[in-house]
Amino acid sequence: MMSTRKDRALRVVHNTQDVQSTVHLGQVLRGHRERAKLTQEQAAVRAGITRGALAALEKKQFPDPHLSTLLALMLTYRLGSLEALLGPSHSEVLAATWHAQGWQGGKPSAPEARGPWGQGS
Protein backbone atom coordinates (compact mmCIF):
# COMPACT_ATOMS: atom_id res chain seq x y z
CA MET A 1 0.00 0.00 0.00
CA MET A 2 1.38 3.41 -0.97
CA SER A 3 1.63 6.09 1.61
CA THR A 4 0.17 9.47 0.82
CA ARG A 5 1.38 12.88 1.89
CA LYS A 6 -1.45 12.95 4.43
CA ASP A 7 -0.18 9.63 5.87
CA ARG A 8 3.24 11.20 6.45
CA ALA A 9 1.80 14.17 8.31
CA LEU A 10 2.63 14.20 11.97
CA ARG A 11 -0.27 13.15 14.15
CA VAL A 12 -0.15 15.20 17.35
CA VAL A 13 -3.37 13.85 18.86
CA HIS A 14 -4.35 10.20 18.45
CA ASN A 15 -7.30 9.34 20.66
CA THR A 16 -9.87 10.68 23.08
CA GLN A 17 -7.55 10.29 26.09
CA ASP A 18 -5.05 12.61 24.39
CA VAL A 19 -7.85 15.04 23.56
CA GLN A 20 -8.94 15.21 27.19
CA SER A 21 -5.41 15.75 28.48
CA THR A 22 -4.27 18.43 26.07
CA VAL A 23 -5.02 22.07 25.62
CA HIS A 24 -6.24 23.61 22.40
CA LEU A 25 -3.07 23.41 20.26
CA GLY A 26 -4.27 26.14 17.91
CA GLN A 27 -4.59 28.53 20.86
CA VAL A 28 -1.10 27.60 22.04
CA LEU A 29 0.39 28.37 18.63
CA ARG A 30 -1.53 31.66 18.37
CA GLY A 31 -0.37 32.63 21.88
CA HIS A 32 3.29 32.15 20.92
CA ARG A 33 2.78 34.27 17.80
CA GLU A 34 1.09 37.05 19.76
CA ARG A 35 3.82 37.02 22.44
CA ALA A 36 6.37 37.35 19.62
CA LYS A 37 4.35 40.41 18.47
CA LEU A 38 4.00 39.04 14.94
CA THR A 39 1.05 39.15 12.59
CA GLN A 40 0.05 35.91 10.90
CA GLU A 41 1.61 37.22 7.69
CA GLN A 42 4.93 38.07 9.38
CA ALA A 43 5.12 34.74 11.22
CA ALA A 44 4.21 32.77 8.10
CA VAL A 45 6.88 34.49 5.99
CA ARG A 46 9.54 33.83 8.65
CA ALA A 47 8.44 30.18 9.00
CA GLY A 48 8.31 29.63 5.24
CA ILE A 49 4.62 28.74 5.14
CA THR A 50 1.57 30.54 3.81
CA ARG A 51 -0.53 32.82 5.98
CA GLY A 52 -3.48 30.56 5.21
CA ALA A 53 -1.61 27.51 6.49
CA LEU A 54 -0.75 29.30 9.73
CA ALA A 55 -4.33 30.55 10.11
CA ALA A 56 -5.60 26.99 9.65
CA LEU A 57 -3.20 25.69 12.32
CA GLU A 58 -4.33 28.38 14.75
CA LYS A 59 -8.04 27.79 14.10
CA LYS A 60 -8.10 24.01 14.46
CA GLN A 61 -8.30 22.53 17.91
CA PHE A 62 -6.12 19.59 16.91
CA PRO A 63 -4.19 20.50 13.76
CA ASP A 64 -2.10 17.96 11.90
CA PRO A 65 1.16 19.83 11.24
CA HIS A 66 4.28 18.39 9.64
CA LEU A 67 7.37 18.23 11.82
CA SER A 68 9.15 20.71 9.55
CA THR A 69 6.32 23.22 10.13
CA LEU A 70 6.57 22.80 13.91
CA LEU A 71 10.35 23.26 13.80
CA ALA A 72 9.99 26.37 11.63
CA LEU A 73 7.44 27.86 14.04
CA MET A 74 9.66 27.00 17.00
CA LEU A 75 12.52 28.96 15.40
CA THR A 76 10.21 31.79 14.30
CA TYR A 77 8.97 32.29 17.85
CA ARG A 78 12.54 31.92 19.20
CA LEU A 79 11.72 28.97 21.41
CA GLY A 80 14.39 26.51 22.50
CA SER A 81 12.52 23.26 22.01
CA LEU A 82 9.40 21.62 20.66
CA GLU A 83 8.29 21.22 24.26
CA ALA A 84 8.45 25.00 24.66
CA LEU A 85 6.32 25.33 21.51
CA LEU A 86 3.80 22.56 22.21
CA GLY A 87 3.85 22.17 25.97
CA PRO A 88 4.75 18.95 27.80
CA SER A 89 1.64 16.93 27.01
CA HIS A 90 1.91 17.56 23.26
CA SER A 91 5.65 16.86 23.36
CA GLU A 92 5.03 13.51 25.04
CA VAL A 93 2.57 12.54 22.30
CA LEU A 94 5.09 13.66 19.68
CA ALA A 95 7.85 11.56 21.28
CA ALA A 96 5.55 8.53 21.46
CA THR A 97 4.69 8.97 17.78
CA TRP A 98 8.36 9.14 16.81
CA HIS A 99 9.15 6.08 18.92
CA ALA A 100 6.25 4.13 17.37
CA GLN A 101 7.61 4.96 13.91
CA GLY A 102 11.09 3.68 14.78
CA TRP A 103 12.80 7.00 15.60
CA GLN A 104 15.06 7.07 18.65
CA GLY A 105 17.46 9.80 19.66
CA GLY A 106 16.89 11.74 16.46
CA LYS A 107 18.11 8.93 14.19
CA PRO A 108 16.06 6.31 12.34
CA SER A 109 16.45 2.86 13.88
CA ALA A 110 16.41 1.06 10.52
CA PRO A 111 19.64 1.47 8.50
CA GLU A 112 17.72 1.98 5.24
CA ALA A 113 15.52 4.70 6.76
CA ARG A 114 15.95 8.27 5.66
CA GLY A 115 16.09 11.46 7.69
CA PRO A 116 13.22 13.95 7.79
CA TRP A 117 14.52 15.83 4.73
CA GLY A 118 15.25 12.76 2.62
CA GLN A 119 18.96 12.37 3.41
CA GLY A 120 20.38 9.19 4.82
CA SER A 121 21.16 9.19 8.51
Short description:
This protein is mainly alpha-helical and 121 residues long. The chain has a domain of 82 residues: lambda repressor-like DNA-binding domains (434 Repressor (Amino-terminal Domain), Orthogonal Bundle).
Write a structural description.
With 121 residues, this protein is mainly α. The protein has a domain of 82 residues: 434 Repressor (Amino-terminal Domain). The chain contains eight helices and two strands. The chain has a two-stranded antiparallel sheet with strand order 1-2. Strand 1 and strand 2 form a beta hairpin. Helix 3 packs across helix 5, helix 4 crosses helix 5 and helix 4 packs across helix 6. The longest helix has 13 residues. It is globular, with a radius of gyration of 15 Å.
State the CATH class of the domain at 23-104: Mainly Alpha
In CATH, the topology of the domain at 23-104 is named: 434 Repressor (Amino-terminal Domain)
**Strand order across the biggest sheet?**
1-2
What's the tally of helices? 8
Q: Give the terminus-to-terminus CA distance.
A: 25 Å
- Largest sheet, described in full? 2 strands, antiparallel
* CATH homologous superfamily assignment of the domain at 23-104: lambda repressor-like DNA-binding domains
Strand content: under 5%
**Oligomeric grouping of the chains:** single chain
Calculate Rg over CA atoms: 15 Å
The ordered H/E elements are HHHHHHHHEE
Classify the secondary structure makeup into a structural class: mainly alpha
Mean pLDDT: 72
GO molecular function: DNA binding
Protein name: HTH cro/C1-type domain-containing protein
Pfam families: HTH_31 (PF13560)
Organism: Mycobacteroides abscessus (strain ATCC 19977 / DSM 44196 / CCUG 20993 / CIP 104536 / JCM 13569 / NCTC 13031 / TMC 1543 / L948)
